[in-house]
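Here is the promised in-class demo. Please do not try to memorize the tokens; focus on the logic of going from shape to residues.
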């Protein structure tokens, strides 16, 4: 019974740590002002935005700092289509409050996942004493199995729906108002972040999240292998 609970704890620890790693991968790209600028350069958006690149670069840095929770002020004055004005209007500012709130929830969820992963791993170590290598190995396999099912589900979801459908459903689920519905002529945000921008950004985010998840699983596999080697009986190493 103790070994079964140990395996379960390790499986939960693996799942939670990978989810935490996915959040970290998401933050690495989604909160990177340099990535915003690279995509705006690639899509050549500055004429559509109506603001020069020289003014947009610091504006992107201010926005990234805001969603990371590092700054309160980000709405800079810029020259837009020849007029000196704030970058965002009142509707866009209210939407950014919602966006920043969503990022706060994401950071909290990431911290909870990693902390709970450490807690379950510690409990698994305590319960599995004397059989650590086998308990961790089985827990890793169980956790990997569950994660594979989850990954498969989302892969099918992304394959079945196009990006616009996913984008709209995401906003319906995570936002309680219609402030995210922008208008091209009046709202700079939709010109700064058009659909091709988000499509590319999401692709980069998914790649980075995958990399972080793989590294996390490799660390677990390495630790499991190390415990297996250390637990071998002396006569087996001769």
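The designed amino acids, position by position:
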């Amino acid at each position: 019974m103790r070994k079964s609970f140990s395996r379960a704890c390790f499986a939960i620890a693996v799942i939670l740590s990978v989810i935490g790693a996915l959040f970290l991968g998401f933050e690495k790209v989604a909160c990177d002002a340099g990535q915003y600028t690279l995509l705006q350069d690639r899509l050549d958006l500055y004429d559509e935005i109506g603001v020069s690149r020289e003014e947009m670069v610091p504006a992107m840095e201010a926005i990234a700092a805001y969603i990371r929770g590092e700054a309160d002020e980000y709405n800079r004055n810029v020259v837009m289509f020849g007029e000196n004005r704030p970058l965002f209007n009142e509707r866009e500012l209210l939407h950014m409050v919602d966006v920043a709130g969503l990022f706060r929830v994401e950071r909290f969820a990431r911290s909870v996942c990693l902390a709970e992963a450490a807690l379950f791993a510690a409990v698994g170590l305590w319960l599995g004493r004397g059989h650590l290598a086998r308990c961790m190995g089985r827990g890793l396999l169980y956790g990997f199995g569950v994660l594979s099912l989850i990954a498969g589900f989302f892969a099918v979801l992304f394959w079945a729906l196009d990006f616009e459908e996913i984008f709209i459903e995401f906003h319906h689920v995570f936002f309680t108002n219609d402030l995210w519905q922008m208008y091209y002529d009046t709202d700079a945000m939709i010109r700064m972040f058009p659909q091709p921008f988000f499509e590319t950004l999401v692709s980069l985010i998914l790649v980075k999240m995958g990399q972080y998840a793989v590294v996390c699983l490799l660390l677990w596999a390495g630790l499991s292998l190390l415990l297996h080697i250390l637990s071998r009986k002396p006569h087996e190493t001769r």
